[in-house]
């Protein structure tokens, strides 16, 4: 017996360690299904907003929320999920409304959602995100003109500028002005008008997102002080 005990002490039995799961690994594994579900849900929501606006044409009411679901995906799950939501929403709209409508949503509104999500995630001030979004919206406006021109076989931009030039000449004639508006001046004024329109649109998108996303627990950067004062003034009134 003493020999058996001494041998056991000399050659101890191997200890088998049970693997211990890391809490961060468990959290990431449990968050993966939620990430996929939320990304798919918000991509479907963005497509549904575009789909309803296409058939009901509610004006600027739904248009304000075109980029918001994609931006919310970025705030909650990062850039990769936002790009996935962009692709899913474009594919879904291509199936429902055709490839043209899917492309026209991706450019600029889905890409605008990614851009806004990136700037909001980095806590950039409103002036930065609004100007960048307005530039993208202006590019998207001319992209839409280009797509529609390709589909119709006509240069719609030249046609529009020609009609505006004729109207300007008629207005100058009625006002008794001898100057003739040049095409270059009218094109520059049209581009500036589109850019200003996109600035106003992005400002409204920021206001709507400020009220909505704060209540969802994904806040965006605070607005300028004068906006906060105006909102408090309206609230007190």
Structural features:
237 residues, globular, mainly alpha, disordered C terminus
User: How large is the share of residues in beta strands?
Assistant: under 5%
CATH class: Mainly Alpha
Sequence stretches where pLDDT stays below 50 over 5 or more residues: 4-11, 13-27, 233-237
Order of helices and strands: HHHHHHHHHH
Oligomeric category: single chain
CATH topology: Arp2/3 complex 21 kDa subunit ARPC3
Structural class: mainly alpha
Main beta sheet strand tally, sense and closure: none
Indicate how many domains the architecture comprises. Answer: 1
Query: Shape from CA axes?
Result: globular
Write the CATH architecture name.
Answer: Orthogonal Bundle
User: How many individual β-strands?
Assistant: 0
Residues in helices, as a percent range? over 70%
Would you mind describing this structure in some detail?
The chain has 237 residues and is mostly helical. It has one domain: Arp2/3 complex 21 kDa subunit ARPC3, CATH 1.10.1760. 81% of the residues lie in helices and 0% in strands. The chain has ten helices and no strands. Helix 4 (68-77) packs antiparallel against helix 5 and helix 4 packs across helix 6 (99-121). It starts with a helix and ends with a helix. The model is unreliable at 4-11, 13-27 and 233-237 (pLDDT under 50).
């Amino acid at each position: 017996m003493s020999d058996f005990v001494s041998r056991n002490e000399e050659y101890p039995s191997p200890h088998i360690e049970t693997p211990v799961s890391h809490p961060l690994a468990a959290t990431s594994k449990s968050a993966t299904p939620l990430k996929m579900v939320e990304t798919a849900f918000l991509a479907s929501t963005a497509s549904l907003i575009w789909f309803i606006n296409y058939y009901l044409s509610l004006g600027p009411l739904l248009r304000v929320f075109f980029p918001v679901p994609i931006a919310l995906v970025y705030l909650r799950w990062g850039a990769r999920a936002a790009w996935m939501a962009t692709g899913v929403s474009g594919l879904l709209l291509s199936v429902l409304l055709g490839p043209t409508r899917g492309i026209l949503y991706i450019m600029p509104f889905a890409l605008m959602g990614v851009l806004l999500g990136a700037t909001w995630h980095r806590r950039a001030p409103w002036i930065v995100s609004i100007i960048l979004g307005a530039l993208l919206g202006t590019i998207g406006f001319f992209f839409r003109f280009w797509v529609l021109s390709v589909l119709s076989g006509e240069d719609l931009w030249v046609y529009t500028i020609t009609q505006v030039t004729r109207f300007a000449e008629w207005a100058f004639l009625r006002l008794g002005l001898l100057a003739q508006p040049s095409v270059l001046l009218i094109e520059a004024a049209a581009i500036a008008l589109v850019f200003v329109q996109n600035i106003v649109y992005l400002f409204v998108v920021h206001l709507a997102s400020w009220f909505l996303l704060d209540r969802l627990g994904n806040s965006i950067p605070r607005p300028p002080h004068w906006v906060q004062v105006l909102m408090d003034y309206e609230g007190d009134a």
